[in-house]
């Protein structure tokens, strides 16, 4: 093997591989600061509501917030004025309660699945209204459940009782409230619900919500932090989840990289991802996925145990399974190495500390409940 080839291997390896060592930072000379000031995203207030969300005008008649003046609502492609008005009622009820913005998306997605945002008089069995809630199950009288504001508020009340709902995938949060016979049906509406919420409530001024809310990639303890003194080149956090645990997209976006990256440190040959790596003998991220999100954010998920469940170019929604936890590449045991990058920069220079970033986006890392 020529020197040139070896040099190429070293450079390409270092650009994306040596995620758990100090050499990436050294190579790029980056790593000063974590870039927090470069990103200013949603910061939950003490009450748990999104900053600024409560400044919206509460409905003058809380029993009918959907009675907004005709023409005051935006047109949203693919939805009738009636459907948009019903989505607006759901968003207004969420603001008024208040409940964080993630809840508005969950509620609108649920109503899309249950009623296509039509405030129907009847449905399956005694189900009524936007959320197809059942009077016989204690949700309220049929007349009340046909009031979008009341129906949405009862949905939010139930959602708020679900422990850690902001960290759940949309489908899990919705299912915890609805107990549907088709729990997986909610997830497919997340993008549409996000678009409706953004159209009605305005996208986050910093773009952090332009394509969707955030969720934990795995619900697991943080075992090793970002650029600690002992591992200054550790450009992510290690989430200690068991082998085979589902890894989820942290937010909606597009898959931009799916790759096995595992190099035998002794001779630069391919180690492969069909077996576990070694902390001493293996370099690289193993099976990994990069997802590009709005506002130049990229998330990276390393050491997957099997080939990822997504392909390059695929659009994903928050909470969508993308692979399973393993120990491929430079790894001493099963875990998810999770990175967040800014400025659409996949190199170490773009990496920021995922912990404050995920807190700001309403999906703190670490084991919940
Ligand atoms: Zn790591």
From TrEMBL:
Record-linked InterPro entries: Cell_wall_metabolism_enzyme (IPR050570), Dup_hybrid_motif (IPR011055), M23ase_b-sheet_dom (IPR016047)
Residue ranges of domain M23ase beta-sheet core in the record: 233-345
CDD domains, alphabetized: M23_peptidase (cd12797)
Identification of the protein by name: M23ase beta-sheet core domain-containing protein
Region described as Disordered: spans on this chain: 48-72
Top-level division of the source organism's lineage: Bacteria
GO molecular function ontology, one term from the record: metalloendopeptidase activity
Pfam families: Peptidase_M23
